[in-house]
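Crash report, auto-generated. Payload:
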Amino acid sequence: MPVTINAIRFNHNPNSINNDAINIRKNFSTPVLYPEWQHGLCTLPEDSLAAYCIKETQGNTISIQASFTMSNITGSHIKIRAIDPAKNPPGCNGCIGIIVRILFILFNAVSGNVLGEVKKKNVTVVNGSTGFISFNLKHTLIGKTGVGIHTTMWLWQYSEDDGKTWKDIATTQHRIYILLEAPKSAWDLTAGSQQNPWTDVLNYVCTWAMLTKTRDDAAAAITLNVYNLGPSILIYDCPGGGSTHYTGGSTFHCTQFIDRLKGGLGNGQYLNCTDCGTIVSSFCNILGCDLWASRMGFYFDLNAINAIGYNNWISCGWNGFSYHEVAWKDNCTDADAIFDACLQVDGDADPANAPHTPLLPVNMIFGTCTSNEYRWRLSPPGPSGCQSCNPQPGTRIRRTIA
Amino acid sequence: MKKYPVERWHEKIMNDTNIILMNYFLSPKDLEGWLFSHKLLEESQPGVQNIAYFFQRNRNDIEQAIRIDITEADSIKDAEKAFLFMLTDVMAPMEFPESEGNENPGVICYKGFSDIVSLLMFLRGNIVVRVRSIGQKEIPVLDVAKKIDADIISTPEAKDSNRLKLNLDLDAPAEEVLKQLASNSEDSSGKKVYYKIIAPNHRIELSRAGIIHPEPGVPNNIILYAISEEGYVSRVELK
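Recovered output after restart:
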């Protein structure tokens, strides 16, 4: 093979997110491979990782960089491009052909190539090497299908006759994460920060919030998926009085939480509202949401609730909370909406009494003691109930991801 | 609001043998029958260091697992505050039940809200300990808690003390030695070391290296033990 592709950079400008990929890392201790694709090191899509933000790249030309070495090339100028080898569905006739095409389109929308193709470009060869060259992408689908994890496969080709005939170089595969917009604190896009978005987290949130196109829809999907981790993976900490297990002060023990999601011990099976509020806000903010973990309180009576991991309205059997913490929008006041993965409230017209209609609070205004919103559903009327369940915006926090 | 009998705690702990630990750690090999998984350092409140240790019964087994939180304060008074924080920084609106009886670890001991004693929190000297079952199967933790308490109150025998190369001027007055301890969590060969100070007739505050010596006529003895991760023990009587 006279032409070899050596490496591909997706995040070729670590200070910009408008035309290329963002700074990411695998987890707290492990950075991603950079350049993101390297000859000899990358075989599978998961060996080559990159993430893009829909909002910031909207309307912009996305570019990548790639480097090549060449031998036995007659001219010093050749053209290089990469096409999508899976662009066309397998050819079948009749009904089966139609079904195959529909499935193919669906598959592509959910997890297929999102970066389109690499536009052909004249390349100058010096001493058999090109160095890194910028290529523009065409037919990208970033933003068309919302949040997701996609596999992009490129067949790299070169032409020595001005594009009349093309010869194959190699096929490369990449795992591409699509985020709604730039991740928000406590995530940090500064190059080299351990708070760069983790692919260990993106693997979950981009699946849970797949195809969502707004912050609220993504946050709702993540809240639902966290709540549904009970009871097999997580359960509300009744024996321990509802103490936190996955946070410590201003730190979110995300590494241990991911370990738990993967079937490991993590920090154990228990969690509380602080954990839920922190998990939801952190996991949503990596996609570009703008949530806080914030408390309400203090010492207030409860209506019946169905805590995470308990499939009943008794849960711990307590008649109140000393405090409660949720993922909260904006200023974390009574006018702002909350996302609560810790418990279901009664969603009917009489939350103080049975029967109870399970309702997971997603994007629900905190509200007042008389409006049919979160506060009214969580806590019964009266001085020891709803009137003691007040927003505590001074407690709002975005915990460091560790 | 939760109301715990803090004054009674103070009275009980002041009548207990005066033990202060510094840089205390559990050795992964300390708990027979348990495999060390990982540990986390946390600062729950300023000046109060918490280390959470996680153990599994078997590797890759999530059925039986325990978490041990060791919170070390600079003084007995700060330990009481840390203990109160541990008991109150939870969502439950009511107090944890006190664990009664002579079998309990610590000077003060509280348990969780389960019929199985799967959670125990106790106070001993300047150390607050919480032991709890965190695996899929809820298991009792009394034995583990008692073992840790026994370790805290034990009077170690000097062992291979020549293998511990402490960077301390042990001829200095006791107050000066205490000041040196904080910055010497390892010996000169890099071995992790914790210190146990047994001073039955003194009151000691580590943060200020403050020592209230006993009345005349009462024995004036402060014993400092340095204990390494490998189990080497050095014993020194401070001046």
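Post-recovery validation: The CA atoms of residues 92 and 190 of chain B lie 43 Å apart.
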